[in-house]
Amino acid sequence: MAKKRAKKRAKPRKTISSVKKRIELAWKNLLFFAVLFVLSYVLYSVSSNPLLLNMFGILSIVLGVVAVAFLLSVLVLLFLKGMNKK
């Protein structure tokens, strides 16, 4: 006869600490991409070479979109944190 194996149960996770860590990570990424966006925008406005102008223009657009995405994720995580407290 085959023996039945005992099933391991998953431990319940603490959602507050998990959300807190995610908010901290999202803030760090938001600040990083916002600084890169500002730097690329400054270089875009300073450069006079058409090749560099196009490169920094595209780079600033991409980094701006990524920064806005992290801003939205921070706002969603803060909303989830507020909902967990109630």
Written overview of the protein:
This protein is an all-alpha fold and about 90 residues long. The protein has two helices and no strands. It has helices spanning about 15-45, 50-85. α1 runs antiparallel to α2 (about 50-85). It starts with 14 loop residues before the first helix and ends with a helix. The relative contact order is 0.14. The model has no long low-confidence stretch (mean pLDDT about 90).
What series of H and E elements makes up the topology?
HH
- Based on CA atoms alone, the radius of gyration comes out at 22 Å
Main pleated sheet:
none
Average pLDDT works out at: 88
Structural class of the secondary elements? mainly alpha
Task: Quote the beta fraction.
Answer: under 5%
- The rough form would be described as elongated
The N- and C-terminal alpha carbons lie at a distance of 51 Å
Runs in which pLDDT lies below 50 for 5 or more consecutive residues are: none
Oligomer: single chain
Which features does this protein show?
mainly alpha; 0% strand
